[in-house]
From TrEMBL, chain A:
InterPro entries: 4Fe4S_Fe-S-bd (IPR017896), TAT_signal_bac_arc (IPR019546), TAT_var_transloc_signal_dom (IPR030948). CDD domains: PsrB (cd10551). This is Quinol:cytochrome C oxidoreductase. It comes from the Bacteria. The lineage of its organism: Bacteria, Pseudomonadati, Bacteroidota, Flavobacteriia, Flavobacteriales. It holds the Pfam family Fer4_7. PROSITE patterns: 4FE4S_FER_2. Coiled coil: none annotated. SUPFAM superfamilies: 4Fe-4S ferredoxins, Formate dehydrogenase/DMSO reductase, domains 1-3. Residues 759-789, 840-871, 872-901 form the 4Fe-4S ferredoxin-type domain.
TrEMBL record, chain B:
Residues 1-30 form the signal peptide. This is Cytochrome C. The chain crosses the membrane at residues 168-187, 222-243. Residues 50-142 form the Cytochrome c domain. It comes from Aequorivita soesokkakensis.
Length: 1022, 444
């Protein structure tokens, strides 16, 4: 039998009496247009000075004026180049290989440029060193066009020229001779920069270099350094692991730099009846926990015990259900032998060492070629911070970091910082540190700079500028070259460096073209000085000091995490990222304290939905030691471990360089004491209700619940026929049931789709991790507007592609089926689902326009603005649309988006489309829609048409793999595959024949061109 | 946004020109100058003992790339060069100038220094007779400027003068006619008054009895109905016609910052369109050529040939336009080098599709092999480019309905064509049958 499992998006849906859910189900557009309110308000109308006659006069005048103005076309100027660069042909995109390395995200990328403007980031498939092209990397192209960027170097707040700046710096350096100056930088992982800094510190011996990672990985680095001698992070290949046990590690998120989703997804797609088994112990519900076969909620204090138990200790001190899970996990790990993998995010060196020792024989861990993307040592950073506060440090140069914003003891540090003799900040915008620094060196965006990186040992990446610097900026490395008296530019410096070593006779141009080389040449990287590591396990002492405070009784366990959108908060000014809904809570433009339902009840915290479905939540104050973060909004999160709470870092930046609209959330770095992401906190409810921009109740597909998510277990998948777990819906024909795929079930005459390409998109629910990269890629490719918090709250977000997150009950699939089957008559789902708050099952489902062959939207459009193409695409002609919204109402998938307002050149929506700089990111091949028209996913018709045209021009047939959409090419895990199903040899055609294939709401009979692959969970317990 | 009324400019120009010509034309002496010019070459041939015609051919084949008769190009001007240097020295220089410079010959070194140290290509293949012929050609005295301007004005004056006199005659006739009408009216009035004075009485009553025509019309409801229907329909027809041409800029021919003549380039000199609009073959835009493309040729063409001048545009006018190009690109013609000071040209865009239309030139030019003229008109005959096609959707669609897909030697179409022609049962497929009418093909 098919799954009759109940899926829900929000706790509110379980409330059978909820009028809100009912209203949302029945109306796509919940809020009426307030004409009655406006016209019914007699007083307001009467007090208006405009009489009816005047009004008619104005209408007449404007109509006449508009008509007159329309008679003459505007004069448009076209200005060609004086000397056109050879490589630029207007209208043709150029791609450059480059590397993003901002200290938090490291990735090999391709930059798509049009007429010399970078407009999109793509993955660089040549690079094999990992480095995840996640949502933030995709969105980073918009940060280039941030109007709040610094436009030139500044001395004491006044903009100066670079020679003036250099003179001032040289003078200051002379004054400072012999005094302690700290060069506090991000992790560069760059061989050339490393060399350059050592030359710099050699010239100025009073400068010492300290690396500061805003989000620390110090414990793991120390553990690795103690064991293997290099300060690095082990690399993991999750595809090689048969059993994965994670204790708190969100390795599909940003754990230790992220980038593991690709390998993980490979192991999670059943091949030859096998897939990996993944067990997750965690406090917050993370992306990783959501994908796990078995997820056990456990507070960080319990996680410490769990890790000990897994690596040899006993699980006796733990609650029964956890102890049971730990014992089973332990047995499975042992059974898997060298194919087992144990990872943890516990911040202390001891825990990290335990995991490292456990994995020493694992095939999935690579300790020989570790990752170099984090370098900082907590002890050293702490020494600097204390030095600044006590006054022993006299000068501070910050590069790529913002300690005033991101240090936990920011207040004392700020006092000390203001007293420093020399404060020099290299910054792209007026961040908290730059706004206090006496000297500010404006740096370019990475897309305007040269650079190199060694993300993973044995691989080297190059970064090249893809646009001339927009402002009067100079990159840090060029400044250092200038100050060390080197006349070279950084480009020459890198080239010389590369030619001398890692190129090993290879071609520089080829390396630059690929953006990446694999080379075993060792580059002497500047080592972080082993101040702490000198005595072997000394670091452990300090970390455990932090954790010993943590082990105290009482209070709540707070787990600080980085959100999918903002990460460490560097790109807070990026509206695409702000508007990207959190994959789990589906909430944008905020961070919030996630609390379990039980704790919420105890603390009298609540989440309520107001009449239009928008979410409100209580406020709390969160306190660590003496530090209080006030007015943190609360979201009651199913699956949150009882006694634990979660809060995202990277929000609440109120520096002058952050645009007002983007100063969202609260700054959780204040709670990041001792750089430990687990903290003991006390929580106190305060008054008021917070208004969230949460879309979790949006687009409920008209309350239909069957055929949305299909899932089964590996056991059933392997043993039973697909009819059992992936049945095709039936309909009634001539009093007998027939499959909806049967021709007789159709009342429509079919389109001829056999000629030419016919596009299909395959989405594998097993491989999709909900990372959001596709959403941002779609934003960038299709000029999707940003609407802001208020509009998202009204469910008016414009995302063409959303990733729905569904909860369901039951520890295991089987269990749920059984419970549901035994459900007493007249009892509601609530009985089963409510207990599941504690630990629901989660499914992610990307939903975009399904491009139905029998599209309900097409038949209701009164002006034929939406129509069907032979290639399978459901086409939308914006200029024809009159905005009746019938189509959206008739769409069973709720994927159509209406332009309620003009989102470009409108001061009410002061995001990137409202300024010349921000508009430079727009894709010139896709029109920017205006107010009052409906829009939706076009299946990237501009990309498919380009592929076809290229083939026509070359006079050749198209090979499989040439067709792409923005989402499919952004998808790292391979969850999305796009192609031509008329090419029977294509990957997508084969996937369509797969027995896991199903269509969303297939019983509706829309015959979509998007199909899904049912989710399989490996529930093997032993 | 700035608006200009472009429609009347062209019609006003000739009028202005006419006023100008009528004011300044002095026309008499134009016939004698050419005779003098003809006499001159014969004399020159006699002087140097070479074949001028052969010399001219050799000059154009070998020298013209770097030298001009008058004015400096890459190398110095060559008119009268035979008188500047010793003939033997000239042979040596032309056969191998670098050897001469290397030998330390002071004249050669000086010449080398003066010309930005650019070596002259050696021509060992030219015989001494050839060189004599070339020098004979270069020794011709400069032809006195053909006073085409004068001739032209004279012609123009007479031609247009005729037009004006016709107009005058008509005007006078009209005036006389008007006067006659007025007189007639006055006469009848006077006669009436006289008649009244003489006591003649009109039969007014009879007139009152008869129904006025308009009243009869109003009473005939059927007629009213028919007429109003007719009026409404025709008003609708004209309103529709008017509305439909709003935003259609067919015939738009704005004045450009540089008077670039497609007639001279594509017509007279038969330069292929794709030579300058190279991106039309591979990109969605045809591309307005960047100025460095202009300079590929115009580095050496600083003035137009006298024959290029027309009645409407003089040689001076065209040379002035080339000077504008030099200014924009920052080319110092006297020094033969770039100054680095550029002023990008702000061309006025003529063909302008709305943002919501995607049009790709390469699809039409390379894949379909359509000639530029199909949409842009006889561009090689346009002195000033105007929008030839209406660029309306109806215009696109009708072409897509009528035109067959160019399937030749295109593997992409091979399978699709086979399937589609089976489906529609036709040999040749129109673009519409290929799916070229789908909204999403052009609107996204």
């Amino acid at each position: 039998m098919a799954s009759n499992k109940k899926y829900w998006k929000s706790v509110e849906e379980l409330n059978e009496d909820s009028t809100i859910v009912k209203a949302l189900r029945e109306n796509e557009f919940v809020t009426e247009i307030p004409t009655d309110e406006f016209l019914g308000n007699k007083e307001a109308l009467e007090s208006s000075s405009t009489t009816r006659r005047d009004f008619l006069k104005y209408v007449g005048f404007t109509t006449a004026a508009a008509t007159l103005a329309a008679c003459e076309g505007p004069v448009i100027k076209s200005i060609p180049y004086v000397v056109q660069p050879d490589e630029i042909v207007p209208g043709i995109a150029n791609y450059y290989a480059s590397t993003m390395a901002d200290g938090f995200d490291f990735a090999n990328i391709l930059v798509k440029t049009r007429e010399g403007r970078p407009i999109k980031i793509e993955r660089n498939d040549l690079a094999v060193n990992g480095g995840s092209v996640n949502a933030r990397v995709h969105a980073s192209v918009l940060s280039l066009y941030d109007k709040n960027r610094l436009t030139g170097p500044m001395l004491d707040g006044a903009e100066v020229t670079w020679p003036e700046f250099d003179t001032a710096v040289a003078q200051k350096m002379n004054e400072m001779t012999g005094k302690d100056i700290v060069l506090l930088t991000q992790t560069f992982a760059s061989p050339s920069t490393s060399k350059l800094i050592s030359e710099f510190t050699a010239k100025y011996p009073n400068i010492r270099h300290v690396v500061y990672d805003t989000v620390s990985c110090s414990g793991a680095l120390d553990a690795f350094q103690n064991k293997y001698g290099t300060r690095a992070l082990p690399d993991y290949d999750f595809s090689k692991a048969d059993v994965i046990v994670s204790v708190g590690a969100d390795f599909l998120g940003d754990w230790q730099g992220g980038s593991y989703s690709k390998g993980y997804a490979q192991g999670r797609v059943p091949k030859n009846g096998k897939m990996s088994r993944h067990i997750q112990f965690e406090a917050n519900l993370t992306l990783t926990g959501a994908k796990a076969d078995k997820r056990v909620p456990a507070t960080p204090s319990q996680q410490l015990e769990i890790l000990k138990a897994l690596t040899g200790g006993s699980a006796s001190g733990l609650p029964e259900n956890i102890a049971d899970a730990v014992n089973k996990a332990k047995a499975q790990l042992q059974k898997a032998g060298s194919k087992a993998l144990l990872v943890t995010s516990l911040p202390d060196t001891a825990s990290q060492t335990m995991a490292l020792n456990f994995n020493a024989n694992s095939e999935a861990m690579d300790a020989n070629k570790p990752l170099l993307t984090r370098q900082a040592s907590n002890t050293e950073v702490m020494n600097v911070v204390n030095g600044v506060i006590s006054g022993s440090v006299k000068g501070l140069i910050t590069v790529g970091v913002d300690p005033i914003y991101s240090l936990p003891n920011s207040k004392e540090f700020t006092e000390g910082y203001k007293k420093l003799e020399m404060t020099l900040a290299f910054a792209m915008k007026q961040d908290a540190t730059a706004s206090l620094a006496k000297m500010v060196a404006a740096t370019p965006h990475y897309l305007e700079s040269w650079g190199d990186a060694q993300i993973k040992k044995g691989t080297y990446s190059l970064a090249q500028p893809t646009i001339r610097p927009l402002f009067n900026t100079r990159q840090f490395q060029d400044s250092v070259l200038q100050w060390t008296g080197n006349t070279q530019k950084y480009y020459d410096y890198i080239k010389e460096n590369w030619t001398a070593s890692m190129l090993a006779g290879g071609s520089w141009n080829q390396a630059l073209h690929d953006g990446f080389i694999a080379s075993d040449v060792e580059m002497t990287m500047e080592e972080v000085k082993p101040t702490a590591e000198g005595t072997g396990m000394m670091e452990e002492g300090t970390s455990n000091g932090a954790l010993s405070a943590f082990m105290q009784e009482g209070g709540y366990d707070l787990t600080l995490y980085t959100s999918t959108g903002l990460g460490d908060g560097q790109q807070a000014n990026n509206p695409w990222l702000q508007e990207l809904p959190d994959p789990i809570t589906r909430t944008a433009w905020d961070n919030f304290l996630t609390v379990s339902a039980a704790d919420a009840e105890a603390l009298d915290l609540e989440n309520i939905h107001v009449s239009n479905g928008a979410l409100n939540g209580s406020y709390v104050n969160v306190k660590v030691g003496n530090t209080v973060v006030e007015n943190v909004p609360v979201i009651i999160q199913p699956g949150q471990a009882k006694g634990s709470v979660g809060l995202a870092l990277g929000y609440g930046n109120t520096a002058p360089g952050i645009q007002k609209e983007m100063q969202t959330g609260v700054n959780a770095y204040a709670l990041y004491q001792n750089f430990s992401d687990i903290q003991k906190v006390s929580i106190e409810k305060v008054g008021g209700m917070h208004e969230f921009a949460s879309v979790q109740l949006q687009s409920t597909m008209a309350g239909r619940s069957e055929d949305i998510i299909k899932e089964t277990t590996l056991e059933i998948f392997n043993t039973k026929d697909s009819r059992f777990w992936n049945s095709v819906p039936v309909t009634d024909y001539d009093h007998s049931p027939i499959s909806v795929r049967d021709k007789k079930a159709d009342i429509w005459s079919p389109f001829d789709e056999t000629v030419g390409p016919h596009f299909n998109l395959s989405i594998d629910l097993n491989a999709c991790t909900g990372c959001g990269a596709c959403v941002i890629a779609c934003h960038a490719e299709n000029n999707v507007p940003v609407v802001g918090k208020e509009e998202v709250r009204k469910f008016r977000d414009m995302h063409w592609l959303r990733i729905d997150r569904y909860y369901s009950a039951g520890e295991s699939f089987k269990e749920e089926i059984e419970t549901l089957e035994n459900l007493p008559a007249f009892d509601t789902y609530k009985v089963v689902e409510v207990p599941a708050y504690e630990n629901p099952q989660v499914a992610f489902q990307p939903v975009m326009c399904q491009h139905c062959n029998h599209a309900p939207c097409e038949t209701v459009c009164p002006v034929a603005a939406t129509s069907h193409g032979r290639q399978g695409q459901n086409q939308m002609a914006y200029n024809r649309c009159v905005g009746t919204r019938y189509c959206a109402n008739n769409c069973p998938y709720k994927v159509r988006r209406f332009n309620w307002f003009l989102y470009n050149e409108n001061d009410e929506f002061d995001y990137n489309m409202n300024n010349d700089l921000g508009r430079m990111v727009l894709n010139p091949d896709v029109v920017v829609r205006s107010r009052g028209v409906m829009e939706k996913c076009s299946m990237c018709i501009q990309m498919t048409q380009k592929t076809i045209l290229d083939a026509k021009r070359d006079g050749r047939a198209i090979k499989d793999g040439e067709f792409h959409t923005a989402c499919s090419s952004a998808c790292e895990t391979g969850a999305m595959v796009f192609g031509d199903v008329n090419d029977k040899e294509s990957e997508v055609a084969k996937m369509k024949e797969d027995k896991r294939m199903y269509h969303l709401l297939e019983n509706v009979g829309t015959k979509p061109n998007v199909f899904y692959h049912a989710m399989i969970k490996n529930t093997t317990e032993a | 946004m700035k608006k200009v009324n472009f429609i009347h400019l062209r019609s006003k120009l000739p009028l202005l020109l006419l006023v100008f010509l009528l004011t300044f034309s002095t026309t008499i002496y134009s016939q004698e100058a050419p005779a003098e010019a003809e006499a001159a070459p014969a004399e020159a041939t006699a002087n140097t003992g070479g074949d001028v015609a052969a010399g001219e051919a050799l000059f154009k084949a070998n020298c013209a790339a770097c030298h001009k008769l008058d004015g400096k190009a890459v190398g110095p001007e060559l008119r009268g060069v035979a008188d500047k240097h010793d003939r033997e020295w000239m042979y040596k220089w032309i056969h191998n100038s670098s050897a001469l410079i290397a030998s330390g010959d002071p004249t050669a070194v000086k010449l080398f220094e003066e010309n930005n140290k650019v070596l002259m290509t050696p021509f060992p293949a030219l015989s001494e007779t050839d060189i004599d012929n070339i020098l004979a050609y270069t020794s011709q005295p400069k032809a006195a400027p053909t006073p085409i301007v004068g001739g032209e004005t004279a012609g123009a004056a007479t031609a247009t003068g005729g037009g004006v006199s016709n107009g005058l005659v008509l005007g006078a006739l009209a005036l006389i006619f008007l006067l006659l009408v007025i007189m007639l009216f006055l006469v009848t009035n006077t006669l009436k008054r006289i008649a009244e004075a003489n006591g003649v009485v009109y039969e007014e009553e009879e007139k009152e009895k008869r129904l006025p025509v308009w009243k009869a019309f109003v009473q005939n409801q059927f007629l009213v109905l028919v007429v109003s229907i007719f009026l409404i329909l025709s008003a609708g027809y004209f309103a529709y016609g008017y509305m439909m041409q709003v935003g259609v800029d067919q015939g738009y021919a704005p004045v450009q910052p540089i008077h670039y003549s497609h007639k001279i380039h594509a017509g007279d000199n038969q330069i292929d369109c794709n030579f300058c609009h190279s991106s039309a073959r591979k990109s969605k835009t045809s591309g307005i050529p960047s100025l460095n493309v202009c300079m590929n040729c115009h580095k050496n063409i600083s003035e137009v040939a006298p024959e290029t001048a027309t009645e409407e545009y003089s040689k001076e006018f065209y040379d002035g336009e080339i000077a504008k190009l030099y200014k924009a690109v920052g080319w110092d013609a006297a020094e033969q080098k770039y100054t680095g000071k550029t002023e990008p040209v702000k061309w006025v865009r003529i063909h302008n599709l709305p943002d919501f239309v995607y049009f790709n030139h390469s699809q039409h030019v390379t894949v379909a092999g359509i000639e530029c003229q199909k949409c842009h008109g006889q561009i090689q005959e346009m002195e000033v480019v105007e929008q030839f096609a209406p660029l309306t959707m109806g215009w696109c669609i009708s072409c897509h309905r009528e035109t067959n897909v160019n399937l030749e030697n295109n593997e992409y179409y091979a399978k699709i064509h086979e399937e589609l022609s089976k489906k529609y049962g036709v040999e040749k497929l129109t673009i519409a049958e290929m799916g070229g009418l789908e909204c999403g093909k052009c609107h996204y």
